[in-house]
Amino acid sequence: MADGEGVLERTLRVLGCFTDDEPAVTATTLAARTGLASSTLHRLLATLVAEGLLTRGPGHTYAIGPRLWELGELSPLSLRLRETALPHMVRLYEATGENVHLAVLDGATPETTSALYVGRLTGRQSIPTLSRMGGRGPLHTTGVGKALLATRDESWLRQYFRAPLERETVNSITSEADLRADIARTRALGYATTREEMTLGNVSVAAALPRVEGLPPVALGLVVHLERADERRLGPLVVQAAKDLHHDLRNT
Known about the structure:
9 helices, HTH_MetabolicPath_Reg, three-stranded antiparallel beta sheet, globular, GAF-like_dom_sf, about 250 residues, alpha+beta, about 45% helix
């Protein structure tokens, strides 16, 4: 049993080396980051490749394999949430022509929690964004993140504010008092907004769904260019899309 636990821990250590910035990593880098002996690492890599959890790439690199993707698609975030959300995301995109994001609250503790993007629609005329499906965004600088923050109770928020609020742009909110005021505004309006707080030139509008049993907290949002950001028009569209999605999720 101890050996099995050791293998799992070593495997997770290896898989944890792959990031947005480095989706392909050499064995040398993996050894340095995991601290595993060369012989142990190469045996583990050979097994992971044979099972399809990793794949070999050019330049003696390794990347996440198709078996991990296949297993990930069995998650309720894919089978239940994203598949149910897709028609609503399409309608929202058709109504606005803007980026549509679907995100959930994810993290072991409030201090380490972020918005995990589980769905994304974009078009040729949509403004470029930093987000990607499977990527993460800070709660305090993204529309979906702020919408999710507004669903949390005071006990959760107190823990969340123990960690510093990192500045992404000159417009990022980095004080607890200001962010709490923004959370109050979000609750009053029914939707959250950001203005150039994650990326300059971008505005986001997002709404959280009421709680759905079996799923983490969910938010749906838009990211638009500052010049096209008509909050009075976009806010109700996002709120209605979130309501419609919640209705369908409750019936699946």
